[in-house]
Design brief:
mainly alpha
């Protein structure tokens, strides 16, 4: 799903804010919110995750190489 960048930015902020509120995260410690978002994300089918992850330049260029080196 694609949407205008302003809408996407607003949605990301809303998701982060709700994650912070629900999980007790703070601006200085977002880990509880990120952990919760990750736990929901990994319930998606592998094919969906594969498709989404491979579209992300940040993941393919920065995260995956670090994972492969461990």
């Amino acid at each position: 799903m694609t949407c205008p960048s302003r809408s996407a930015s607003r949605r990301i902020t809303e998701i982060k804010d709700s994650g912070m509120e629900i999980r007790g995260a703070t601006a200085g410690n977002m880990l509880p919110a990120y952990e919760r978002l990750f736990s929901v994300l990994v319930t998606a089918p592998i094919a969906v995750l594969n498709n989404l992850f491979l579209k992300s330049t940040k993941l393919t260029k920065k995260v995956f190489p670090k994972l492969n080196s461990h």
